[in-house]
Amino acid sequence: MPRMNPASMARDARKIFRAAVLSASPKEAVARHLRLDDTRKGREFLTLSGSKLDLDEVGRVWVVGAGKASAQMAQGIERLLGRRVAGGAVVVKHGHGAPLKRIRLYEAGHPVPDEAGVTGAAAVAAVADQASEGDLVLALVSGGASALMVSPAEGISLADKQKCTQLLLASGASIHEMNAVRKHLSALKGGQLARRAEPARVWALLLSDVIGDDLDVIGSGPCAPDVSTFGDALAVLERYGITGRVPSTVRKRLERGVAGDLPETPKPGDALFRRIRNVVVGSNAQAIEAAATQARELGYRPMVLTTRLDGEAREQARMLASIALEAQSTGRPAKTPLCLLAGGETVVTLRGRGKGGRNQEFALAAAMALEGTKGITVLSAGTDGTDGPTDAAGAVTDGGTVSRAAQLGFSVADALAEYNSYPLFQATREAVMTGPTGTNVMDLYAALVLPIEAARSSSR
Predict the structure, then answer these.
(1) Which pTM value belongs to this model?
(2) 141 near 215, Cβ under 8 Å?
(3) DSSP 8-state symbol, 151
(4) Cα distance between residue 69 and residue 144, in whole Å
């Protein structure tokens, strides 16, 4: 077994996370699924996961998209198709851009939409409107698209959507629940972008940031049939007690939809989707597999617990810490040195006014659960490189975090109570700082566990 101690374990955790992020490269994800095939007769065919088009029979190729990874996905398309791209527009989060030649790039606000997102969404809609029969529209959708491609439905203002988004983010609603609401306040989400592109063919390449890789939830499914309804959206507001707090225009629109006064989003079975193909080109599961491979190379026994972790961040952190403690003391569920891995996306129900994000809260709760123990290190980080409204991806903690924070004048318990994890991790230098990664396949959670004998003999 390689010599391991808390300092080396923290470095190992960061290496494991980097391996997961690199595996989710948007350009490589596009290249794995979309390719050009030449024939001996000089004809070129574009293939997407079994679907094939003769490019000599295709009119123009347009590119639209939104999400934190859409700029790098667009780079992959330009590298593959070059001058065959007639034009396009993609919307990314501020700071997540990449150089493009034939596709216009727009940067906008996330997770709360802003005016730049409205401008970008209008550009995307304009490209879709240009598409005609015989054309091909490549739609590039990744995490963050719901907030970035903001096109308020008739009667809804940007301020209305901002207020509604803020309330949903603070409520603890899941991404599935949030997107059910967003789709019914939008002119592009829930299959409506595909409708704008009629009668062109649409191939949507999706980099999934949602549990289960549900097509209608990734980026709020702009090119997918929508299984949610106005009734579902209204039920979400009621479930979290915010029906009376959202703007009246939002509530009234949803109520009108429930009454049948407004048309629903396109549903499964709609003839529209005969010309639409949605393909998931990258996901959290692929990132977790890469993390497991890296852990094995570093001398740990990898064990994937789930790629569907959700629920409150601090509760899931305590659960992961308890499994790590059990493994160290009993060898269950696997022998050490062990790397427990999970993927998914937790939530935080905000009750304080501090600065942080779900991954930093997860790490902070794990630190409290592990206080005083040795030989266990926990990482929680977002593959997009940002956690909530901060520039940290997450944090790495262990049983010494509480005491180290105290020496610097910070209380982990107070930081948890005030939802103020970011300043603490900046002070302890345990924050994971990557900058925007250009991808987004949810979050990665890792617990590295040493044998108890090695833990007792190790020192920081």
Answers:
(1) 0.87
(2) no
(3) -
(4) 9
CA dihedral of residues 126, 127, 132, 135 (deg, nearest 10): -170
Instruction: Determine the pLDDT at residue 458.
Output: 58
What mean pLDDT is predicted for residues 370-393? 96
d(CA 21, CA 228): 31
Q: Is the pLDDT of residue 220 over 50?
A: yes
- Rounded to 10°, the helix 158-171/175-183 angle is 160
The enclosing H or E element of 406 equals helix 401-407
Q: pLDDT tens for residues 26-73?
A: 999 999 999 998 765 778 899 998 899 999 999 999 999 999 999 999
6-19+285-455 fold: glycerate kinase, domain 1 (3.40.1480)
Residues forming CATH 3.40.1480.10 domain(s) in the chain: 6-19+285-455
Does residue 310 contact residue 342 with C-beta atoms inside 8 Å?
A: no
- For residue 222, cis peptide bond before it (omega within 30 degrees of 0): no
CB of 455 within 8 A of CB of 5?
no
Buried b (16+ CB within 10 A) or exposed e, 81-112: beebbbebbbbbbeebbbebebbbbbbbbbbb
Cα 109 from Cα 155, distance rounded (Å):
22
H/E run at residue 446 = strand 443-449
Can you name the residues that pair with 379 across neighbouring β-strands? 396, 446
Are 363 and 388 spatial neighbours (Cβ–Cβ below 8 Å)? Answer: no
Contacts of 3 (CB under 8 A, 6+ apart): none
Query: Residue 181 belongs to what H/E stretch?
Result: helix 175-183
Spatial strand order of the sheet with 85-93 comes to 104-108, 85-93, 61-66, 136-142, 201-207, 276-282
Strands laid side by side in the 443-449 sheet: 301-309, 338-344, 443-449, 376-382, 394-398, 431-432
* pLDDT value of residue 460: 44
For the cut 60, the answer to whether the pLDDT of residue 1 exceeds it is no
pLDDT (tens digit per residue) in 227-257: 999 999 999 999 999 999 999 999 999 999 9
CB 173 within 8 A of CB 94: no
Instruction: State pLDDT tens for residues 179-214.
Output: 999 999 999 999 999 999 999 999 999 999 999 999
Would you call 285 helix, strand, or coil by DSSP? helix
Whole-number CA gyration radius for the chain: 23
Burial status of residue 193 (CB atoms within 10 A of its CB: 0-12, 13-18, 19 or more): buried
Helix (H, G, I), strand (E, B) or coil at 456: helix
25-282 fold: Rossmann fold (3.40.50)
pLDDT at 94 over 50: yes
Comma-separated ranges of CATH 3.40.50.10180 domains in the chain: 25-282
